[in-house]
# Entry
Amino acid sequence: MRQSFFSAIRPAVRRVGFGLALAAGLTACAATFTNHGYVPPPELLDEIGIGSSREQVAEIAGAPGTGGVMRDEAWFYTQYRVRNFTYNAPEVIERDIVAISFSDAGRVTNIERFGLEDGQVVQLSRRVTESSVRDIGFLRSILSNFGRISLGDATDN
# Structure
Protein backbone atom coordinates (compact mmCIF):
# COMPACT_ATOMS: atom_id res chain seq x y z
CA MET A 1 0.00 0.00 0.00
CA ARG A 2 2.80 2.39 0.81
CA GLN A 3 4.49 1.90 -2.54
CA SER A 4 1.25 2.54 -4.42
CA PHE A 5 0.77 5.89 -2.61
CA PHE A 6 4.22 7.17 -3.71
CA SER A 7 3.81 5.90 -7.25
CA ALA A 8 0.42 7.66 -7.45
CA ILE A 9 1.76 11.01 -6.16
CA ARG A 10 5.01 11.05 -8.20
CA PRO A 11 3.42 12.29 -11.50
CA ALA A 12 1.67 15.12 -9.62
CA VAL A 13 4.97 16.21 -8.04
CA ARG A 14 6.64 16.17 -11.45
CA ARG A 15 3.87 18.36 -12.94
CA VAL A 16 4.11 20.87 -10.08
CA GLY A 17 7.92 20.94 -10.38
CA PHE A 18 7.70 21.46 -14.15
CA GLY A 19 5.15 24.25 -13.65
CA LEU A 20 7.37 26.01 -11.11
CA ALA A 21 10.40 25.73 -13.39
CA LEU A 22 8.39 27.10 -16.32
CA ALA A 23 7.10 30.02 -14.22
CA ALA A 24 10.63 30.84 -13.01
CA GLY A 25 11.94 30.75 -16.58
CA LEU A 26 9.23 33.09 -17.84
CA THR A 27 9.76 35.49 -14.95
CA ALA A 28 13.48 35.68 -15.70
CA CYS A 29 12.64 36.95 -19.20
CA ALA A 30 10.47 39.82 -17.91
CA ALA A 31 11.66 43.38 -18.47
CA THR A 32 12.90 45.46 -15.54
CA PHE A 33 12.56 49.23 -15.31
CA THR A 34 14.72 51.83 -13.56
CA ASN A 35 13.90 55.48 -12.93
CA HIS A 36 16.54 58.22 -12.80
CA GLY A 37 16.48 61.94 -12.06
CA TYR A 38 13.90 64.46 -10.94
CA VAL A 39 11.62 66.92 -12.74
CA PRO A 40 9.40 69.22 -10.70
CA PRO A 41 5.68 68.50 -11.18
CA PRO A 42 3.65 70.93 -13.34
CA GLU A 43 1.99 72.44 -10.23
CA LEU A 44 5.36 73.62 -8.93
CA LEU A 45 6.47 74.87 -12.34
CA ASP A 46 3.28 76.97 -12.51
CA GLU A 47 4.44 78.80 -9.37
CA ILE A 48 7.66 79.89 -11.13
CA GLY A 49 7.03 82.94 -13.23
CA ILE A 50 9.10 84.95 -15.67
CA GLY A 51 11.20 87.29 -13.53
CA SER A 52 11.53 84.91 -10.55
CA SER A 53 14.98 84.82 -8.97
CA ARG A 54 17.31 81.81 -8.80
CA GLU A 55 16.69 81.61 -5.07
CA GLN A 56 12.91 81.47 -5.60
CA VAL A 57 13.33 78.71 -8.21
CA ALA A 58 15.57 76.71 -5.86
CA GLU A 59 13.04 77.11 -3.05
CA ILE A 60 10.07 76.05 -5.21
CA ALA A 61 11.56 73.39 -7.49
CA GLY A 62 14.67 72.32 -5.62
CA ALA A 63 18.27 72.21 -6.79
CA PRO A 64 18.79 71.32 -10.44
CA GLY A 65 20.50 68.20 -11.69
CA THR A 66 22.81 70.25 -13.93
CA GLY A 67 23.48 73.85 -14.81
CA GLY A 68 24.76 75.72 -17.84
CA VAL A 69 27.95 74.51 -19.48
CA MET A 70 30.14 77.63 -19.30
CA ARG A 71 28.02 79.96 -17.18
CA ASP A 72 25.05 79.41 -14.92
CA GLU A 73 22.59 80.70 -17.54
CA ALA A 74 20.21 77.74 -17.32
CA TRP A 75 19.19 75.01 -14.94
CA PHE A 76 18.22 71.58 -16.25
CA TYR A 77 15.98 69.08 -14.49
CA THR A 78 16.02 65.65 -16.14
CA GLN A 79 14.08 62.47 -15.51
CA TYR A 80 14.09 59.28 -17.53
CA ARG A 81 12.92 55.69 -17.39
CA VAL A 82 15.05 52.84 -18.76
CA ARG A 83 13.84 49.39 -19.77
CA ASN A 84 16.27 46.48 -19.40
CA PHE A 85 15.18 43.36 -21.22
CA THR A 86 17.23 40.14 -21.21
CA TYR A 87 20.31 40.40 -23.42
CA ASN A 88 19.22 43.58 -25.26
CA ALA A 89 20.88 46.93 -24.62
CA PRO A 90 19.07 49.18 -22.11
CA GLU A 91 16.51 51.44 -23.81
CA VAL A 92 15.28 54.85 -22.67
CA ILE A 93 11.49 54.67 -22.98
CA GLU A 94 10.52 57.94 -21.26
CA ARG A 95 12.43 61.20 -20.92
CA ASP A 96 11.37 64.54 -19.52
CA ILE A 97 13.65 67.60 -19.43
CA VAL A 98 12.79 71.01 -17.98
CA ALA A 99 15.15 73.88 -18.84
CA ILE A 100 14.84 77.11 -16.87
CA SER A 101 16.83 79.95 -18.46
CA PHE A 102 18.12 82.94 -16.50
CA SER A 103 19.18 86.44 -17.50
CA ASP A 104 22.52 87.95 -16.49
CA ALA A 105 20.72 89.46 -13.50
CA GLY A 106 19.67 85.97 -12.29
CA ARG A 107 15.99 86.26 -13.26
CA VAL A 108 13.94 83.60 -15.10
CA THR A 109 13.57 84.40 -18.80
CA ASN A 110 12.14 81.12 -20.12
CA ILE A 111 10.86 77.72 -19.00
CA GLU A 112 10.92 74.93 -21.59
CA ARG A 113 9.88 71.30 -21.38
CA PHE A 114 11.22 68.58 -23.69
CA GLY A 115 10.18 64.94 -23.98
CA LEU A 116 11.57 61.86 -25.67
CA GLU A 117 9.61 62.69 -28.82
CA ASP A 118 11.55 65.98 -29.15
CA GLY A 119 14.68 64.13 -30.25
CA GLN A 120 17.98 62.99 -28.90
CA VAL A 121 19.75 64.79 -26.08
CA VAL A 122 23.03 66.30 -27.28
CA GLN A 123 26.12 64.99 -25.54
CA LEU A 124 28.01 68.12 -24.51
CA SER A 125 31.37 66.57 -23.67
CA ARG A 126 32.96 63.21 -24.36
CA ARG A 127 35.94 63.43 -21.99
CA VAL A 128 38.03 60.91 -23.90
CA THR A 129 41.77 60.95 -23.47
CA GLU A 130 43.65 59.61 -26.44
CA SER A 131 46.71 57.54 -25.72
CA SER A 132 50.03 58.70 -27.12
CA VAL A 133 51.32 55.12 -27.03
CA ARG A 134 50.23 53.30 -30.15
CA ASP A 135 51.28 49.89 -31.40
CA ILE A 136 53.96 49.58 -28.72
CA GLY A 137 53.82 46.64 -26.38
CA PHE A 138 54.18 47.04 -22.63
CA LEU A 139 57.50 45.19 -22.42
CA ARG A 140 58.99 47.09 -25.41
CA SER A 141 57.99 50.40 -23.79
CA ILE A 142 59.76 49.50 -20.53
CA LEU A 143 62.89 48.15 -22.21
CA SER A 144 63.26 51.20 -24.46
CA ASN A 145 63.48 53.46 -21.39
CA PHE A 146 66.60 51.74 -19.97
CA GLY A 147 68.90 53.57 -22.39
CA ARG A 148 67.51 56.95 -21.27
CA ILE A 149 68.37 56.52 -17.58
CA SER A 150 71.53 58.30 -16.45
CA LEU A 151 73.00 57.13 -13.14
CA GLY A 152 74.93 60.41 -12.83
CA ASP A 153 71.67 62.38 -12.77
CA ALA A 154 70.31 60.13 -10.02
CA THR A 155 73.40 60.44 -7.75
CA ASP A 156 74.24 64.17 -8.15
CA ASN A 157 71.96 65.23 -5.27
Notes: The chain has a mean pLDDT of 75.
